[in-house]
Each structure stands twice: as structure tokens, then as C-alpha cells.
Amino acid sequence: MMFKKKIIQAAATMATLSFLVWPAWAEKAEQPEPAEKTEAAEKAEPAAKKVDPDKKVAVVNDTVITQGDLSQEMGPVQQRMAMQGQAPDDAQMEEVQQKVLQNMIDRELLYQESRKQGFTAEDDAVKAQMETFKSRFPDEAQFEEALSRLNLTEDIIRKQIEEQLSIQKLVDEKILPTISIPEEELKTYYEENTDFFKEPEQVHARHILIKVEPDADEAAKEEARKKLEEVRKKLEEGGDFAELAKEYSEGPSNVKGGDLGYFGRGQMVKPFDETAFATDKGEVSDIVETRFGYHLIKVEDKKAASTTAYEDVKEKIENHLKQQKVQEALAKYLEDLKKDAKVEVYL
């Protein structure tokens, strides 16, 4: 659904508010590392290495933020920028560093206020969050490798989870109750953003692929096509498409019986895309050639283009608008905290 892609995690917990609550590693941990370092990655890394980790960069009331703390927060940010092909110059990197430091200061102010008002995280909740974080990794070895890569330890993560949960309680108790979204505002948003709720035409298909290298000669192509012709003959004799896909398909979806799920126009290579949408539900296509090789495509289902009804997305709209208002209210809350706080920045 386009709405799900366009509206940023509207159903997520309201208190999960960008860098203000979660540190940078929480987002970075779920992103794969590039296979090899790009030029952008090489440029982005040195800044984090030439620092005195004990140097004070800020003090929030009585809490010191060191250069080491900042570098730890900057590491995932720099890696993410590198993965996106960004190679900021020194001035741009300094601006990014200032923003990251300000986020750290804001988080510290919120954490101190949460403690002051008696909002603390229960041990069980911290443990559960820690387990959720670790579950993102296939095994302990990859978890440890990620910690090493991000210059983190379990104790650091556990402490930051405790801080995040305390801040979340503060937001839940002091900010969320002040937020309400009238029905009229929800309907207006729906009516003014109908493109968000459009569901494009989709097809649910399976395929059987016999691979052919792009530079293969005619003999190799003919051999691959002949192999797929034999599979098609088995289908004509009553063979089950999914079982034959598991046995013969050379694509990664073979373990799922060739199941590609639902996809919209333009998501597959052009010849595959055109054939899938032209084939009737329940039918198997002729052999299709793409840059990957030769395919047989079975169309399991089709969905016509549609617009999701208001009642079906009302809750998501409410969560989205509520998140926006919480961000605004939190910014105002932080302004008030800063009036009574002593914040010194040395960077």
C-alpha cells in the first residue's frame, strides 16, 4: 500500500522519536554493511579517528558528554551516509556533528527530567528490549561483530535502552495526554492526500527460472530453453507448479515454490512484468526470456487498482498525525527544559 510507504512508521510507538529517543546505532544495526568500502566510506571514516575520547564537548547540568560519546554516536551516522554514497566535505561533516551533538543534549535533558519526575525503566522491560535488539541478528557471532563494528558493548546498549524507556514514560505521561486529533481533521487529511491511499494494480505470481548468463552463446541458451521445455511438459502432464519450482527453478524463490508474492507494475524486469500482467489468473505463460534466463510464470491472483477506504486507514492516519503533534509538543517541552537547565557546549 502506498500509504504505508509514504507515511513514516505511523503505527509505531509515539515515543520512538527519531534521534531524540533512540541513539543512532538503533537504526544502523538493521542495515547491512556494503560488500566493500566505497570512496565515500573511505572519506567518511577518518574524522571519527582523530579525537581525544575524554575531551569534553558538552555538559548538560552535571552530566558530561565526551568526544568519545560523540564519536560513538557519529560512527553509525557516517557509515549510513557512506552507504548512501554521500561524501560530505569537512564543513558539512561539522554541521552533521553539531546536529548529532544537539540530539544527544536533548536526549540527556529528557532523561534527566524523566528521572526527576520518577519515571524509571523496569528491569524486565530493559531485558525484553535487549532481547528484541539481539533478535535482529541471525546468531550471537553476528551480534558481537555488529557491536564491534559500531564500537559498542552490551552494557552501553543496555544503559541507552534504560534511558530510552524512561524518556518514553515521560512522553507517554506528560505529552501524549495533551494530544487529540478531531475526526474532522482525520477526514480532511484523507481527502487531501488520496494518492497516499491508492493501491496499484498487482499480480501474485510464481515462476520457474532456468538461468542463462548474459554473455552465453546460442548453444547454452538453447540448452537452458530445452530444460525449461521439459519442465513445461511435466506441467502439461499434471505436475504441480510449486513442486516443480522447488525441484527445477534456479532462482532464490525456489525454496518457496517459486512464489514471488504480490507485485505492482514496474517492479520486475520488463519482459517478465509485461507477461505476468498479460497472463490470466490460474494460467501459465509461455517461456519468457529476461537478462536472468528463461522463465515460466504462473499467475496465482490479480488485484485491480483501488483506493483504500477511510475507515480502513483511519487509525493509521490518526497515529501519523499524532506523531507529528507529539514531535511539535516535544520540541516545545525541550525549549522549556532548556530555560531552567545549564547547558555548555565546547565543540
Question: Helices, strands, pairings?
Answer:
Elements (H helix, E strand, L loop, with lengths): L1 H5 L11 H4 L2 H5 L10 H6 L11 E5 L2 E4 H17 L6 H27 L6 H12 L5 H10 L4 H21 L8 H10 L5 E2 L2 E10 L6 H19 L4 H8 L10 E6 L5 H9 L9 E3 L2 E11 L2 E2 L2 H30 L3 E3 L2
Antiparallel strand pairs: 1-2, 1-9, 3-8, 4-5, 4-7, 6-7
Please explain how this structure is put together.
With about 350 residues, the protein is an alpha+beta fold. It has 14 helices and 9 strands. Residues about 1-20 and about 25-50 have low confidence and may be disordered.
| Rounded average pLDDT | 86
**Residues in helix, %:** 40-55%
Unreliable residue stretches: 1-22, 27-49
Which geometry do the CA atoms define? elongated
The total count of helices amounts to 14
* Helix/strand structural class: alpha+beta
Biggest sheet details: 4 strands, antiparallel
End-to-end separation: 44 Å
How large is the radius of gyration? 26 Å
